[in-house]
């Protein structure tokens, strides 16, 4: 009965007019939903969906990525259209993810580029029932022939070494920009995709359409979630010393293009791990308002289109 009353409240909120008023009323409704204990928990769960509640990934150079994994993918001899490697032919790869999580999308970009077939298990951010089996309660989680791997940078590191077991070339430039993605670029995204109430709704329309939600959760998440993340994004903006969201996004895009120094990719003739990381975290926002603005107002569009063509079609196995 409480769930029915909650849906009725949402219906009345939608009829009031004014986006911010609707969002505020929907946010209040989230405190009454039987699936949530309070709005703080709901906001935390939704923030986690995009990797916002994860601890900082800053770490020492030796801890974040081994020198072998930081070596250039330009040294990789296999082509995308061929099998990944004679050294790495897993029978089953399963990614436990949130569709819009930037760290999950880093892994998918790596798998897609290397043509490694994988299955997706979309995790419900509220119940997390899909990862009850694991002691690790965050995403991404990657299972390779039953072996659990966690943390996006560590996952990519391990996969790279399995594909390239003899690689020993140290590339400090590549390591630097992989760390820049984790420690800077991802923090610029949320204040942009939730910059206004309309953009927050646009983002949560994408999240709830692609995510693993029940019917009721989808209704609540789109409006209450958008409202919650609109306000959370303001706190993130302050935390990361961002004064103008779009300016920060454009600056990050231009910083990356400058790092290319005229090359097709940071890796030269082929993408390296940094190229794949930047592409991976930007891919979910590319066709949202913020991503369209970024391409229109910066020089990153040419590189991004080149990466889209090079990474190619998803290697995901659809069941």
TrEMBL record:
<keyword id="KW-0275">Fatty acid biosynthesis</keyword>
<keyword id="KW-0644">Prostaglandin metabolism</keyword>
<keyword id="KW-0444">Lipid biosynthesis</keyword>
<feature type="domain" description="GST C-terminal">
    <location>
        <begin position="205"/>
        <end position="319"/>
    </location>
</feature>
<comment type="pathway">
    <text>Lipid metabolism; prostaglandin biosynthesis.</text>
</comment>
<keyword id="KW-0472">Membrane</keyword>
<dbReference type="InterPro" id="IPR004045">
    <property type="entry name" value="Glutathione_S-Trfase_N"/>
</dbReference>
<dbReference type="InterPro" id="IPR010987">
    <property type="entry name" value="Glutathione-S-Trfase_C-like"/>
</dbReference>
<keyword id="KW-0643">Prostaglandin biosynthesis</keyword>
<dbReference type="InterPro" id="IPR036249">
    <property type="entry name" value="Thioredoxin-like_sf"/>
</dbReference>
<dbReference type="Pfam" id="PF13417">
    <property type="entry name" value="GST_N_3"/>
</dbReference>
<dbReference type="InterPro" id="IPR034335">
    <property type="entry name" value="PGES2_C"/>
</dbReference>
<keyword id="KW-0812">Transmembrane</keyword>
<dbReference type="InterPro" id="IPR040079">
    <property type="entry name" value="Glutathione_S-Trfase"/>
</dbReference>
<feature type="domain" description="GST N-terminal">
    <location>
        <begin position="91"/>
        <end position="167"/>
    </location>
</feature>
<keyword id="KW-1133">Transmembrane helix</keyword>
<keyword id="KW-0413">Isomerase</keyword>
<dbReference type="InterPro" id="IPR034334">
    <property type="entry name" value="PGES2"/>
</dbReference>
<dbReference type="Pfam" id="PF13410">
    <property type="entry name" value="GST_C_2"/>
</dbReference>
<keyword id="KW-0276">Fatty acid metabolism</keyword>
<protein>
    <recommendedName>
        <fullName>Prostaglandin E synthase 2</fullName>
        <ecNumber>5.3.99.3</ecNumber>
    </recommendedName>
</protein>
<dbReference type="InterPro" id="IPR036282">
    <property type="entry name" value="Glutathione-S-Trfase_C_sf"/>
</dbReference>
<comment type="similarity">
    <text>Belongs to the GST superfamily.</text>
</comment>
<keyword id="KW-0443">Lipid metabolism</keyword>
């Amino acid at each position: 009965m409480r769930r029915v009353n909650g849906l009725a409240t949402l219906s009345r909120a939608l009829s009031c007019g004014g986006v911010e008023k609707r969002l505020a009323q929907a946010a209040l409704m989230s405190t009454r939903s039987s699936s949530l204990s309070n709005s703080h928990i709901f906001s935390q769960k939704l923030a986690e969906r995009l990797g916002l509640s994860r601890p900082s990934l800053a770490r020492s150079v030796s801890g974040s990525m081994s020198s072998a994994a930081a070596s250039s993918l330009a040294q990789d001899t296999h082509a995308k259209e061929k099998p990944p490697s004679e050294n790495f032919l897993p029978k089953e790869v399963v990614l436990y993810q949130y569709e819009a999580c930037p760290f999950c999308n880093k892994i998918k970009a790596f798998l897609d580029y290397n043509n490694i077939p994988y299955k997706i298990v979309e995790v419900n951010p509220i119940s997390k029932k899909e990862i009850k089996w694991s002691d690790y309660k965050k995403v991404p989680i990657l299972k390779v022939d039953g072996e659990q791997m966690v943390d996006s940078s560590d996952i990519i590191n391990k996969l790279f070494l399995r594909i390239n077991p003899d690689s020993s070339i140290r590339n400090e430039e590549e390591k630097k920009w992989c760390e820049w993605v984790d420690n800077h670029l991802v923090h610029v995204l949320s204040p942009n995709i939730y910059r206004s109430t309309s953009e927050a709704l646009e983002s949560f329309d994408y999240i709830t359409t692609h995510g693993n939600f029940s019917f009721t959760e989808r209704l609540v998440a789109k409006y209450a979630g958008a409202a919650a993340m609109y306000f959370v994004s303001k706190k993130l903006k302050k935390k990361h010393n961002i004064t103008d969201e779009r300016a920060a996004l454009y600056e990050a895009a231009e910083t990356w293009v400058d790092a290319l120094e005229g090359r097709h990719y940071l890796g030269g003739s082929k993408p390296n791990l940094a190229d794949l990381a930047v592409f991976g975290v930007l891919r979910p926002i590319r066709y949202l308002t913020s991503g369209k603005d970024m391409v229109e107002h910066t020089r990153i569009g040419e590189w991004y289109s080149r990466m889209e063509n090079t990474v190619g079609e998803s290697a995901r196995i659809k069941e």
